Every structure is written in structure tokens, then in C-alpha cells.
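To: structure desk
From: M.T.
Subject: fold request, one chain
Message: Could you run this one when you get a chance? Sequence is below, nothing fancy, just the single chain.
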Amino acid sequence: MKPARVITKNSELPELFATLTAGDIIACRLRLKYDEEHLLLDLVERGVQLIPSATSQLASRSKTFQARLLAPYMIPHTVVIYDIHGLLDTVSLFGHHRVGEVVLKHDRKNAGLGIHLYRDIEDVYNQAANDTIPYPFVIQPFVADSRDIRVIILDDYIEAYERRNPDNFRNNLHCGGDAEVFQLNPTQLALCNTIMKRASFPYAHLDLMITEKKEVYLAEINLRGGIRGATIDPGSYQKKVKTIEDKLLQEKL
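Reply: Done. C-alpha cells follow.
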């Protein structure tokens, strides 16, 4: 049995890609262009092991993929829209459930820059029908007065803080919000762990939404994210991530 080859740098992948076989390991996040992401499927089909997992890497890049994967943990009636036909179906769905204001999330924009609030699903349909909204996108009911909790989980290091912005429904710190330490309860932590396991995240930044009725839903998940508002410093953060990845690599060798 041949020893596994280990790729630790993106620059090594182009030369070795065609020769990788089952048991080989890519131990770094791949910097793939939009049209290259299908290569993840090919690598997995060939038995190449990825650290972090291919699923977590793709979910971190694509809001539509993570919504398809993790919709059961998100606000009810979270829908991924791929074309006008799917949008028309959603118009009927939201009408049936008397959904008013809706939030639209563009597939590949972060830091609150791709989040839009509409009066109703008809407004979204009118714009999309005139080709002013690019497909695909995520659409979900807007929940007023919800709390926005950022959770950082790095193995046994767990930190949470609430992000708030009284002047903007986008609570991202990038959009002018501030942060305050938040204490997760066991049920909320268990939800985070369940989500991470489902999407094969070895570590994660999770954004939770807590409604006025104390319901808890996933808003988004990513392998990495900004740590403004967190107590952990960048150096310690990077060290903990590397420790997790090194441990996973040793388990695969």
C-alpha cells in the first residue's frame, strides 16, 4: 500500500491534481474559483481526503448550498431559488402561510453586504422577473426583533457574543453593530454541534437567531469569519485552527 501524499499548499494542487488517488490528503482550504468547485466532487469520488471536509468548504462559500443542506435548522420556509419557476412556487407557499416581509440573501456575499429586506415576496418576484436579481439566492421570512448570536467553536474552545445594531436590521459588526458576551445554554450548544456534524465542519463560526418566543435557528455557518467582537486574539485563533487540522491529519495518516 503506497503512503498517502499530503498537500498542504494550494500552489501544489494544479501539478498534482490529475495524479491524486484514494488515500491522498489535501490538508488546506482550497482557493477555488466559482467554476472550479465541481473539482471537489471529483476529488471525493476518487477517495482523496480533504481537511477541512469538501462539504464544509463548499458550504462556507455558498449560502444556497448551506441552505439546502441545513434548512431544517433554519427559519421555517427558508427556500433556495434557482429560477423564476421556483420563485413562483415560493410566492404561493409564502402566500399560503401569510408570510409578509422577507429577507433575500445573495449566494456569495458576506458581512451583511448581500442581505436585502423586501416588503413581501411579490416585490422579490417583480424584480427577479425583470432580471435585476441574479440567481440563485436564498429567501426566508423576516423575523423582527430577533437576537443575533455569533458562536465560535474551535474544538474545546467555545465563545459566543451577541451582535446588535439599533439602526439597521443587519447586526453584522461590519455594518456598524456592537457586541456583548453571550452565554450559550446547553440546548443552544447542542444545536451548534448537531449542525456542525451534519455539514462535516471540524470547527466553525455559526450565527444563531433567537426569536422573541425563544426559538433558536441557524442563520449562517462558515469555517472562518471575522473575530471582531470576540475575546480570542488572531494569533490564538490561528493556532487553535492549526491544532485541529493537524490532529485531523494525523488521524488520517
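Reply (cont.): The chain has eight helices and twelve strands. Let me know if you need anything else for the meeting.
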